[in-house]
Amino acid sequence: MRNRRPYAVVAGLVLSFSFFTLLGVTIISALGLPEDIMRYVGLVLLVLIGLGLVFPPVERLLERPFARLPQRQVNREGGAFVLGLGLGLLYVPCAGPVLAAITVAGARGKLSLDIVALTVSFAVGTALPLLVFALAGRRVAERVGAFRKRARKLRIVAGVVMVALAFALAFNLTDALQRALPDYTSTAQKKIEDNQVARQKLSGLYDDSNKELSRCEDGVDELRSCGQAPPIQDITKWLNTPGGQPVDLKRQHGKVVLIDFWTYSCINCQRSLPHIKAWNRTYKDVGLEVIGVHAPEFGFEKKPSNVAEQAHKLGVTYPVALDNKLTTWNNYRNRFWPAKYLIDSHGIVRYFKFGEGQYAQTENLIRTLLKEANPSVTLPPKTGQQDAQLTQDRTPETYLSNLRISGYVGDPLQDDKSTTYHFPSDIPLNRLSLDGKWTAGYQYFTAGDDARLAFTYRARNVNLVLAGKGTMTVLVDGKTVKTIPVSGTPTMHRLIDDHEARTAHLELRFTPGIQAYAFTFG
User: Is the whole-model pTM more than 0.90?
Assistant: First the structure.
């Protein structure tokens, strides 16, 4: 009989994901258990499966619950089914309106045959690609003799990798990798999940309140009147407010308000946060109020201490409302993580954007609303940009991207490959070069051993967006001026801040693993 382990893994994943997405909140609440218990159960199962691959007695122990099943082949697939159950508890797809509808229904305990069918269909659909990869990998292993001869060693390696993955998930070490990956599927997702038919089917999950929001379209390049902004209500807890006091939208009249629906484990949300934080820093003093509404996708995201820890780690300093019951989510008829809603100074929703992207457009509309609210206001330069008059004789913005970089001199760049580079004898004005080991990627350059970067620039100040963990030493004209610690998500760091613009030679020395994104000059 053919090995059915891949099918058993996928069956376990579909079953546990569907069951606990719909009923997990109700069961955990009824039993009075911690809201993140299922995440830890999944991690423990993943560790046990990994240990089972390394130590056969552990594997036999995991398969014991299936020992009474009549078919011996089924008995042998018991461990695979347990693995699928554990993966289902850890499965965190950051999906669009379909998963949003499922999550809302499960959180509110309003289940129906339609919702159950939608959940199972979604779980099967997302699991099928995993099954295809598993079957393809099995065929390769069956055909290549080296795999068969070293089956025991490969099982041990797989077990160690699985245990390591469990610990990486437990400490959120996989987030940086996921943030770095582009959102390749967003266009297809919107065509499938947010087309006219899907919107009509999913709209039945909402009541008739705030129907005016449905008059507006996602991401249009203009301000419209989408009705009075619904209230932020039924909030479990507020973060980043004086004494944990709530923010009342009615008291914000006269200000422009940006509401950002997000959840901390959603990688799409994490990739949009640098823009939200930059808008908050730039426009807060001229009338913009940013409010994050944390709408949990899974049970462990409801725990206030988890949200507070992750918000601090992600550098979120503006008010955050914990919408654990998804009441505010429903008030805004929302369907996506992340989603941004712009409210004018009169309390009217004028624009919303689902998902990532269109950041420049959103910022332009923020500036328009600020001018409408106060025609005499002097707006600061756009984020990541400087006033044209100020920068006309300055070094231009420079992206560290193998496809977008300008002004590079030196050894030819090798795409996505760790390569040793050498400084040329001369680096002209507005030119940069590399030395030591670097990996030149599409979104950023990653420093390796003895990595250095030199840039001859003209500006008053120099900024560089960095991520990763380590340090960067800054030298100007051969003299060390500072050492900057780097930790976490992409953040802009001020390297140079002089009183007057000048021409100088900048050299940066990096510890391995630092990711450098883009230079800006002022």
Answer: no
